[in-house]
Design brief:
single chain; 400 residues; mainly alpha; Growth Hormone, Chain: A
């Protein structure tokens, strides 16, 4: 299968992966009113997804290192799409928690495998750019989730928003099952099958671990802002639910896409001058988050607030391609599915499995402005972890 066709199937799957994930956040105010929920309950809906997502990923990684990955990718898309449809029929808070958890099962199966699957079809000199273009689905899908979720729920209710979001993934999942081909050579002999000690070695791989920890801090911020910024705009900038979803969706798709693409391109260009190019982009991006976030929260002008939040979003998305490329470079092909699964577990256990509910708790105590600012301060340990990853990075040529 040619790389271009493979890229577009995976990109579209990734797009609806994020649409189905993010549509929930645009309907928070409507869920709160209908189901009589507080901010902690709302944050827990996001955290329930992430807890299932991160715990299921290692299971997928283990079996995907031994079996054709395209079957896992296609089946995962069918699961998360069916679960999104089921959200529209939820009878109450508990059933909504369950269906969000099932979305986590499907999306973990896809995300664990898609990036290494794609990366192995591109040479190292183009890898960060290819992964960054794949990562454009994150801001685009998130934006569409906010935009469509806000508009549809405003006119036809939150159940209709979930229903319409779930249908396309069913068709794409079937397409993945029938069209994708895994060119990786599967283990033929017992000696070739990854063993526990091979996976345990990942925990001794310091560049890999510190990349994961830096990625976790980025994920903590993105997850927290993704969950709460539409509500922030609704509360403090006097926007209705539809407008808040549209405005924040536009910020994410424009600024996130710009940051994602520029980050990948910059990292590939910098590789000509430094083997630590991925880490330079990640570290500088994290440093760039703080000042505009602070100004955006403090200013009384809605226009300036949106500009500052947009700059912070650009910085948060700059590392998308470099992080994925650094993970590929730091790991070997036989254990790469599990490596990405471990990364998923770490970034969500320390990232967006925590941040939505922690922001909800901080918001109930001190207000949402203070909670958002505290979330952004996770960039500080992120810079430290990036520096440590660069310090331990070894000059090794990865054959894949």
């Amino acid at each position: 299968m040619n790389a271009k066709k493979l890229f577009w199937i995976l990109f579209l799957l990734n797009l609806f992966n994020y649409i189905d994930r993010q549509v929930l956040y645009s309907v928070f105010p409507l869920l709160q009113a209908e189901l009589h929920l507080n901010d902690v309950h709302l944050g827990a809906l996001a955290s329930a997804f992430m807890l299932v997502y991160m715990c299921y990923a290692p299971f997928v990684g283990y079996f995907a290192d031994r079996t054709p990955r395209q079957k896992w990718i296609g089946a995962s898309a069918l699961i998360w799409s069916a679960a999104t449809l089921a959200c529209s029929a939820a009878k109450g808070y508990i059933s909504l928690l369950f269906t969000r958890g099932m979305i986590g099962v499907g999306e973990a199966g896809f995300t664990t495998l898609a990036q290494p699957f794609l990366a192995e079809h591109f040479p190292k000199a183009k890898r960060a750019t290819a992964l960054a273009c794949f990562g454009l689905a994150l801001p685009a899908g998130s934006a569409l989730g906010y935009l469509l979720g806000g508009l549809i729920s405003q006119h036809w209710g939150w159940r209709t928003a979930f229903m319409l979001a779930g249908v396309p993934g069913l068709f794409l999942g079937f397409l993945a099952l029938t069209q994708l081909q895994d060119n990786r050579r599967l283990p033929q002999q017992p000696a070739e099958i990854p063993h526990f000690k091979n996976y345990l070695a990942l925990l001794k791989n310091k560049p890999f671990l510190f990349i994961c920890l830096a990625h976790a801090m980025i994920t903590f911020i993105i997850g927290g802002l993704s969950a709460w910024m539409p509500t922030y705009l609704h509360r403090y900038l006097q926007m209705d639910v539809a407008k808040a979803g549209v405005i924040f969706g536009a910020l994410v798709v424009v600024c996130g896409a710009a940051g994602t693409y520029l980050g990948g391109k910059s990292a590939d260009k910098l590789l000509n001058f430094s083997h630590k190019a991925y880490f330079w982009v990640i570290g500088l991006a994290l440093a760039g988050v703080l000042a505009p976030a602070w100004i955006g929260i403090q200013t009384q002008s809605a226009g300036w607030a949106l500009i500052c939040f947009g700059l912070s979003i650009i910085c948060l998305f700059l590392p998308t391609g470099p992080v994925a490329a650094a993970l590929v470079s730091a790991t070997r092909a036989p254990v790469r599915s599990m490596a990405f699964a471990v990364n998923i577990f770490i970034i969500h256990a320390l990232g967006d499995a925590l941040s939505p509910v922690l922001i909800g708790q901080a918001s109930d105590e001190w207000g949402l402005k203070a909670a958002v600012l505290l979330c952004c301060l996770a960039a500080v340990p992120g810079i430290l972890f990036t520096w440590l990853a660069a310090s331990y990075e070894r000059r090794e040529t990865n054959p894949f």
